[in-house]
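Predict the holo structure. Ligand: BES.
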Amino acid sequence: MSDPQSYIDKNIKKFENELFELLRIPSVSTDSKRKDDVKKAADFLINQLESIGLDKVTLHETPGHPIITAEICPHDDKPTVLIYGHYDVQPSDPDHLWKTLPFEPTVKDGRVYARGASDDKGQSFTHIKSVEAYLKTGTEIPVNVKFILEGEEEIGSPNLIPFIKNNKDLLSCNMVLISDTAMFGEDQPSITYGLRGLAYMEIHVTGPNRDLHSGVYGGAVENPANVLCEIIAKLKDDDGVVQISGFYDDVESMTPEMREAYKQLPFDEEEFKSDLELKAVHGEKGYSSLERASARPTLDVNGLWSGYQGEGAKTVLPAKAGAKVSMRLVPDQDPNKIAQLFADHVKSLAPDTVTIEVESHHGGHPVVIDLNYYGLKAAAKAFEEIYDKEVLFSREGGSIPIVADFKKVLGVNSILMGFGLTKDALHSPNESFSLKDFHRGIKTSAKFFELLPDFVE
Ligand code: BES
Ligand code: MN
Ligand code: MN
C-alpha cells in the first residue's frame, strides 16, 4: 500500500487514459441531438465514482440533463467538502478551425487537445482521482467529501438551482470546492475569489413582411438591420460606459485598496496584446485591462444577423434583424433587474416603424468570496506545497452561476481552485489542458484534503 501522493504519481497514465475516454464523449448540453451523449458522459462518471468506492452514487434525472451525487463521509468531527464540476461542454463549432478532431483527444507538447479538456472535464476529474488515491490506498480520507456533477453548466444550470433547494440535507457541507477557472499564468497557482454574473439577452427587429429589393424599396422603407445597428451603437458611449439608465446603480465601486491589489498582480499588457494579436487594448475609460475584465460590468454583442450572408452581393433590404447581447455583472447587480432595464431601454430606443422584441436567456449572480475564509487559506497552502510557488488571489470575468446559489441556499463559500490557463482556449477551437497541471491538480486536491482539518477555525 502506498500513500495517496505516490499512488497519484504511479497511476498518472491510467488517469490520463480515463480522462481521454471521457473527452471522447461529445456531451454538448445545448445541442438536443447530443442528449444521449450527455447521458453517456453521466454514466461514465457514475461508473467511475462507483468503482473507486464512493457511497450513495446516484444519477438524478431532471427535465434536462442528469445530476450526479456521491459521497464518502466517514467523520463526525471533520469538515465536509462538496466538490462541484460540470461534465457538459460547449459546442465544438466552428469545426473547420480545429487542427485535430474536437472529440478525439490528441496529445501534443504535454497538452491534451479536445473540447472540454480544461472546461471542465479535465479540471473536475482531478478531484475524482484524488479521492481515488485515498480510497485505493486504504488511507482514511482526512475530511468528508461529497460530489455534485452537473450536465447543464454551459446552458445556465437551469435544473441545478431547484435541485440544491430541494436537497439541502443531501448536499449539506462546510464549503464547496470547484476547479473550473484559470490560473494567473503558467506555473502560477492562483485562487479566484470573484466571478462575474451574467444577463444574456436577444433582440429581434422586424420590419416589412418580406425581404425586399433594396433598389425598388430602399429609402422608403425602414431597414431593420440599420435600426438594430443604431440601437446597439447607443448602448455604450465613446468612453465605454453603458448607457442603460440604472445599469450602474448597484455596482460596488472599487476601493483604493482593491485597485492597489489589482496593480500588484503580474499582468503583462504587451503579452496580452500579442497573444490576441490586438492593435490596442480597449474598454471603459479610467480602468485597467484587468479591472475591465473582472471588476467592472460589460455589455457585448455575442451574435448578430440580418440580410444576405452568402458569397458576392445580393441587393436586399432584410425583413428582420437580430442580435444576442451579454452583460457581465459585478456585485451587487441583479441579473433579473438588469435584464428588465435592458429590455425597457432597448424598446425606448426603437422607432415606431418596426417591431422590437427583447427576450431574456439565462443569467447568473456575481460573487466575491471573503479572502479571510479558512478554506481559502488551506487551498493556498496545498497549492504552494505542490507548485512550490506563492499563490495569487484574483477575480475573474467568467461566470459559474451556481456559486452564488451555493452561498444563498446552502450558506457556504466556494473555493475556486482552478488548474486551467487562459491559453487553454475555453469555448474556442483547439481547447487544451496541460497534462502537467492535470497531474499537479490531482496532487493539490489530495493535499488540500490532508491540510484542511488543520485550518478549521
Ligand atoms: N468555466 C467557465 C467559467 C470561467 C471560465 C470562469 C474562466 C472563470 C474563468 C464556465 O464553464 C462558463 O463558461 N460559464 C459560462 C456561464 C454561462 C453559460 C451561464 C460563461 O461564463 O459564459
Ligand atoms: Mn466551466
Ligand atoms: Mn464553459
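The mean pLDDT is 97. The longest helix spans residues 435-455.
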